[in-house]
Amino acid sequence: MYRAEDWLRQAERDYQQAQVSMQSDLHEWACFAAQQAAEKAVNALQMQLGQEAWGHSVLKLLQRLPEKIEVPPQMREIASILDAYYIPPRYPNGFAEGAPYEYYTIRQSREGVEYARQVMEFARNEMARLRDRSARGEGLG
């Protein structure tokens, strides 16, 4: 069953949630939702390629893409930053003391939202390129 578009649509919703959380000063949730948006967008790309996406690390998901997908070095750096927003924003034991919300600011929210946008744009563009190649009969390989 083809689910890539479902994953991409959910990534877009998670991205919207990141924006709403940022505007509501819920910065820990903005950061987590941004990571989720990026993760789901790369999952969608992997699914379009016929791969199974495993794990939650945006960086590792990007690294598992086939060589024919050129992942810019900056995208890997962005992924590493977003991966730091996967667990600590949600759990009080992610830091030595204090609640997660005490550690996240508008700066991290903005960064996370922007980086998620860039990962989503990368995934969308690659998916469109693959669809175009398939429509021309070139296949995915």
Relevant CATH superfamily: Nucleotidyltransferases  domain 2
Number of distinct beta strands:
0
By helix and strand content, what is the structural category? mainly alpha
Number of domains: 1
Proportion in helices:
55-70%
Task: Briefly note the CATH topology name.
Answer: Four Helix Bundle (Hemerythrin (Met), subunit A)
Q: Given the structure, what is the number of helices?
A: 5
**Sequence stretches where pLDDT stays below 50 over 5 or more residues:** none
Determine Rg (CA atoms, Å).
16 Å
Note the overall shape.
elongated
- Proportion of beta-strand residues: under 5%
Major sheet characteristics? none
Order of helices and strands: HHHHH
Distance between the termini: 20 Å
Give the name of the CATH architecture: Up-down Bundle
The CATH class assignment is Mainly Alpha
Mean pLDDT reading: 94
Structure report:
With 141 residues, the protein is mainly alpha-helical. The chain has a single domain (4-135), classed as Nucleotidyltransferases  domain 2 (Four Helix Bundle (Hemerythrin (Met), subunit A), Up-down Bundle). Helix content is 63%, strand content 0%. The chain contains five helices and no strands. It has helices at residues 4-23, 27-48, 58-63, 73-83, 106-135. Helix 2 (27-48) runs parallel beside helix 5 (106-135). The model has no long low-confidence stretch (mean pLDDT 94).
